[in-house]
Amino acid sequence: MKLKPNNAADAKENSTKNMTRRQFMGAIGHTASGMAVAGGLVMVYKFLYPNVLLEIPSRFKIASINSLQPGSHVFEPEHRVFAFHDTRGYFFALSAVCTHLGCTVAWKSEGITGHKEGIFLCPCHGSEFTKEGDVIRGPARRHLDRYHMAVDEGQLIVDTSETVNTIEDMILKV
Ligand code: FES
């Protein structure tokens, strides 16, 4: 004997299945939205706090004491810093950034009249500076930045965040 289908019961069962499917689809939609928002937040975080260190550290080793012989100098291009070992026996470090508009000055060891020890010459507008960074000729109006130097395990350390005003404060005697 064939049973007659109960239309009301089937309709209710279908309704329950439909609701469940609807709820399931809704849950998937909410999950996808949540993942999209989370992904967006991760992207924003990576943008604000990138893994790459964009700033170079201000404190760095420029040379070993033994490698910088009296009367010689070294130029560190990343920080644009010169370090000298003066023939009088002391060390000092200067910025190579021209105080006019920021070009990199060049060291001219042959010097000019009255500055036989050598000068810094700016290739952009011709400013000249003494070996200790004082202005000889403009348009620059301020001396080159002078840095405090230190020695750590035989290495000469420069910190570009520590500028000093006077030549005396710049000099490092070892
Ligand atoms: S940038 Fe050096 S003189 Fe102008």
Give short descriptive properties of this protein:
seven-stranded antiparallel sheet, four-stranded antiparallel sheet, 174 residues, Rieske Iron-sulfur Protein, binds FE2/S2 (inorganic) cluster, alpha+beta, 2 domains
Structure, described:
This protein has 174 residues and is of the alpha+beta class. The protein has 2 domains: 1-54; 59-173, Rieske [2Fe-2S] iron-sulphur domain (Rieske Iron-sulfur Protein), CATH 2.102.10. It has 2 helices and 11 strands. A hairpin with a 6-residue loop joins β6 (119-121) and β7 (128-130). The longest helix is centred in the N-terminal third of the chain and has 42 residues, at 7-48. The protein binds FE2/S2 (inorganic) cluster (FES). FE2/S2 (inorganic) cluster binds next to loops.
